[in-house]
UniProtKB/TrEMBL annotation:
Protein's recorded name: Ribosomal RNA small subunit methyltransferase E
Subcellular location field: Cytoplasm
EC number: 2.1.1.193
Organism name: Sanguibacter biliveldensis
GO cellular component, one term: cytoplasm
């Protein structure tokens, strides 16, 4: 069975090497020592949310402080692509279910979208509290999935803001895919950054080219997956996004709920990118 994962603050782990001692305290220490009752000799992993993972052995437990011996240090490599789920706000907890499952499936970031047909509206204090719930949901799902990378949660955008983000992503060599039931292009045939065009059967990322370095594209190229609310994406929003460079794609033969469409798309794209090979 894989070891449980605990999150450290960014930057706390960078200087550690095998044989060092690390003190897991605070809320994560309490979760390990008091809630999960981890004991001496057990293995746990500590990650920094940015791809760094410490494999550790528990050497002492005192209430909410767990002393660890670092056994190994591993940094997960980046494939040069950032997979972002743009999730429309949805009633109930359907949007939170979507980002939870997408995090488990390997999404790199999530962006809340105040779509025209969203029943839920984020304003003022509610916006801050709702985004905080998304952050907590993503954090818990990251630990559940034993991930070393913690997806970021952006600030809520409206249609105009999403169109501007779309134009930026496309200009930087990325792709914006809008899931739409009337689209004719299957998501499996959409052009993705780092893959040959429509590369049937191609797996894994294509090699980076000299042009990539010349244009300063060391930053991950983004793939945005846009999912609408229960009532769907409006015609005006579709026009706004496609005029900004987005592509409408069909996920499959059936119409999926807003809570399931995003995670399934993330899984399919992860397979195409070779992440699940």
């Amino acid at each position: 069975m894989s070891a449980p994962v605990f999150l450290a603050e960014a930057g706390d782990l960078g200087s550690l090497v095998p044989g060092d001692t690390y003190l897991l305290d605070g809320l994560e220490g309490r979760h390990a020592g008091v809630v999960q009752r981890r004991g001496v000799g057990e293995r746990i992993d500590v990650v920094d949310g940015a791809g760094l993972r410490l494999t550790c052995r528990v050497t002492a437990v005192q209430a909410s402080e767990v002393t660890l011996e670092v056994v190994s240090v591993e940094r997960e490599p980046s494939d040069g692509v950032s997979l972002v789920l743009v999730q429309a706000l949805a009633k109930g907890d359907r949007d939170e279910l979507a980002i939870e499952a997408a995090t488990e499936a390997g999404v790199d970031a999530v962006l809340p979208w105040q779509a025209e047909r969203s029943v839920v509206v984020w304003r003022g204090d509610r916006a801050a509290k709702s985004r905080a719930r998304w952050v907590a949901t993503v954090r818990a799902a990251t630990k559940q999935a034993r991930r070393a990378s913690l997806p970021g949660v952006g600030d809520v955008v409206d249609a105009k803001g999403l169109a501007a983000r779309t134009a930026q992503v496309v200009a930087a060599g990325g792709t914006v895919l809008v899931l739409h039931e009337e689209a004719t292009l299957p998501i499996a045939q959409a052009v993705l950054p780092g893959l040959p065009a429509l590369g049937a059967g191609a797996q894994g990322l294509a090699a980076r080219t000299p042009e990539d370095s010349a244009t300063g594209s060391d930053a991950p190229r983004e793939i945005l997956v846009v999912v609408g609310p229960e009532g769907g994406i409006s015609e005006r929003e579709c026009t706004l996004l496609t005029e900004s460079g987005a592509t409408l794609v069909r996920l499959g033969p059936h119409v999926l709920r807003t809570s399931t469409a995003g995670p399934i798309a993330v899984a399919l794209l992860s397979e195409r990118l070779g992440r699940w090979a």
